[in-house]
Amino acid sequence: MNSFYSIFTKKQIMKKSKLLCVLFLFLLCGIHEARAGDFTASGSTLTLDLNVANQLVSVVSNGTSYTFTLSGGATNTWSGTTSSSVSVSGADLTVTTTGLSTFNTINITDSQTGNGVTFNTSGANAYTDNFNITLDNTPGGVLFNGSSKFTGSSAINVTTSMYVYFTTSSSLKTENGNLTLDANTQASPNNFSFSGITVDASTVEITGSGVLTMSARGGTGTYTSFNNNGIAVVKGGIVKGGTTGTTSITGRGYTGLAGTFSNIFACGVMVAGVNTATPSTITSNGSNVVVTGYGANSTAAPPIANSAIGHVGVSVGTPMYNSGTSLNIVVSGLITSGGSGTVT
């Protein structure tokens, strides 16, 4: 019987059902549009945290602003309180002109695994803030593509439990700010088939009074090109310290290698150019240069096996072999210092 009360009750049920459907769709959309990064501002510091696994954030200076873009497009967004200093549009977070004057330090961290950071080319545009990149939750790599420049006393500090890779023709430069790179030096090294830091036909340089420090250990994965060195400066790559103080380069080859090597590199520090006309170089603009290398600790293989240096502490120039037997050429490498700086 359809009494007034029964009809009224049915209408209430239908209304509540619609509300529940709307709520369900809202939650579903919220799940679909994942918040892959959080940002918080505290005084002069902006912190970005990658809180969804396997995300990549790309970083670019536009001169009067910075852009931080999450991978995954519009399905991934930044979460935080926007202001005149920080704006968000989907996967893009922008530190505005106001933000550049508000902040002096920008931190990027990871609270989930597999996350990486890529500095894409900024051309002639520069960064005027200190950047601290700390990826310690089984992350991806930190990559540099194209030109990245920090002016004045702005510094960059990269600490990652994976690797740092400078792609061909890329550059990272500071002036009077420190430049610090630390890769895979934690107690238990991670599994990847790269050197800890690779400077591949690229440039890492301090042009003023900043201090350059690089520390790295090779990965424990299957060896590939430039393999498991601690630090590899290759194909005409240049690492150049500042005008004062001490430039410190410390590398450790992966220490778990054993047996007979062929085309294996597990040096602490390897400096090898394309040829004698295009050497790879570790040098300075006047600072002292200290290079320390620890090769892989295998006792079963000789220092040179078949076709390449195996696992010495510091390899400057690499003997290359023809058909794996006869010595062919020496690929050039240099360790020097500028001005009155010393080399150790």
Oligomer: single chain
Mass-distribution shape: globular
Report how far the terminal alpha carbons are from each other: 98 Å
Number of DSSP E strands: 31
The largest beta-sheet arranges its strands as 6-7-4-3-9-11-14-17-20-23-28
Number of helices: 2
The level of helicity is: 10-25%
Describe the largest sheet: 11 strands, mixed
| Strand proportion | 35-45%
Low-confidence stretches: 4-8, 18-33, 258-263, 298-309, 320-329
Please identify the structural class as seen in this structure: mainly beta
Relevant terms:
344 residues; 42% strand; 10% helix; eleven-stranded mixed sheet; ten-stranded mixed sheet; 31 strands; mainly beta
Question: What this model shows, in words?
Answer:
β6 (86-89) and β7 (92-95) form a beta hairpin. The strands form five sheets. Strands 6-7-4-3-9-11-14-17-20-23-28 form an eleven-stranded mixed beta sheet. The chain has a ten-stranded mixed beta sheet with strand order 5-1-2-8-10-13-16-19-22-25. A six-stranded parallel beta sheet has the order 12-15-18-21-24-31, with no helix packed on it. It has helices at residues 4-32, 97-102; strands at 34-42, 45-50, 56-61, 66-70, 76-79, 86-89, 92-95, 105-110, 116-119, 130-135, 142-144, 147-150, 156-160, 164-166, 171-174, 179-183, 197-200, 203-206, 212-217, 231-234, 238-241, 246-252, 269-272, 280-284, 288-294, 304-305, 308-309, 314-316, 318-322, 326-331, 333-335. By secondary structure, the chain is mostly beta strands.
